[in-house]
Inverse folding.
């Protein structure tokens, strides 16, 4: 890969980041309502994706236990508590796997 | 948080686990990319591109002998999700377009999550959501950027964290589960989140080639139905 290709890929990446964030007018109406509902599904989707590997298998056991620990803390709606739950789950998973 | 929004310290504390995990993955990238790209281009790619998933994909493609058009096509495809992340964040980001363009460099899945959560929290507390989201995107973004560069350089130099690589991999599901719980403001949000998780799991197994696009595709799909009155 040449430095020019790296530069072009960097440009594509930045343009994709800036396109909606910098150039899009502030959304309103139905579009804004849909966008407001998107974050929770996106985060849940990203979490799921991090539990499935590229070769269609599940992540290691301790990682699953970490996710379960975090899931157990979701009613508290606190990022630090989810982290603590995740660490506890990971430690438990290490004992089993 | 204070009346004017989250402090730099509180943002860094919140984003520290993600930044630490990003640093660990940075060492893996640095070590894996160096034999293929060379030390200088490996570091340059992290400095300029700053996208772990894309950079790992590029290394895999290069090691399989892919040419420039395939690399550019992959970059374009994987980056499509930024359009949706930017659109979701846009209502929480005020100021001039130039200012937003500056912040845009730091738009990652993780920093997007922190910024959305900070903006929502500020809104609930009757403070400026724009300032909270912008500051959070910038500060957590700089933290993650420094972590990624540090990890890349350490990996290029041959260092690594083999003992904590597994734990670093666990940070991301934990982080996104926590962010999902923060973003759920109603039972309907929770149902949408669970539906998205199920659909994504199915897509990741059925169509692994499209997995990078799954979060935004599924996220928008389940967000489309209106709330029941």
């Amino acid at each position: 890969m040449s430095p020019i290709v790296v530069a072009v890929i960097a440009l594509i990446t930045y343009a994709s980041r800036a396109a909606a964030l910098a150039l899009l007018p502030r959304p309103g109406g139905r579009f804004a309502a849909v966008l407001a509902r998107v974050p929770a599904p996106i985060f849940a989707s990203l979490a799921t994706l991090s539990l499935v590997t590229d070769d269609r298998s599940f992540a290691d056991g301790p990682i699953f236990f970490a996710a379960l620990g975090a899931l157990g803390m979701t009613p508290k709606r606190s990022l630090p508590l989810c982290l603590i739950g995740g660490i506890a789950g990971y430690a438990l998973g290490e004992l089993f796997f | 948080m204070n009346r004017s929004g989250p402090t730099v310290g509180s943002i860094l504390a919140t984003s520290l686990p993600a930044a630490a995990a990003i640093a660990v993955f940075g060492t893996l990238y640095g070590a894996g990319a160096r034999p293929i790209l060379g030390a200088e281009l490996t570091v340059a790619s992290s400095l300029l591109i700053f996208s772990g998933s894309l950079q790992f994909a590029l290394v895999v493609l290069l090691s399989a002998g892919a040419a420039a058009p395939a690399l550019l096509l992959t970059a374009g495809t994987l980056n499509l999700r930024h359009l949706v992340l930017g659109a979701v964040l846009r209502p929480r980001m005020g100021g001039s377009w130039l200012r937003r363009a500056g912040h845009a460099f730091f738009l990652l899945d993780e920093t997007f999550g922190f910024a959305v959560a900070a903006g929502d929290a500020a809104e609930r507390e009757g403070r400026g959501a724009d300032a909270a989201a912008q500051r959070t995107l910038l500060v957590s973004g700089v933290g993650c950027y420094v972590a990624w560069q540090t990890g890349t350089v350490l990996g290029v130099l041959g260092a690594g964290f083999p003992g904590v690589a597994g734990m670093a991999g666990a940070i991301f599901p934990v982080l996104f589960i926590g962010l999902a719980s923060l973003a759920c403001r109603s039972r309907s949000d929770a149902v949408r989140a669970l539906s998205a998780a199920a659909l994504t799991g199915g897509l990741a197994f059925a169509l692994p080639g499209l997995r990078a696009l799954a979060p935004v595709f599924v996220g928008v799909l389940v967000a489309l139905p209106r709330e029941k009155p």
Observations:
- The mean pLDDT of chain B is 90.
- Chain B touches chain A through 90 residues (CB under 8 Å).
- Residues 21 and 169 of chain B are 7 Å apart (CA to CA).
- The radius of gyration of chain B is 18 Å.
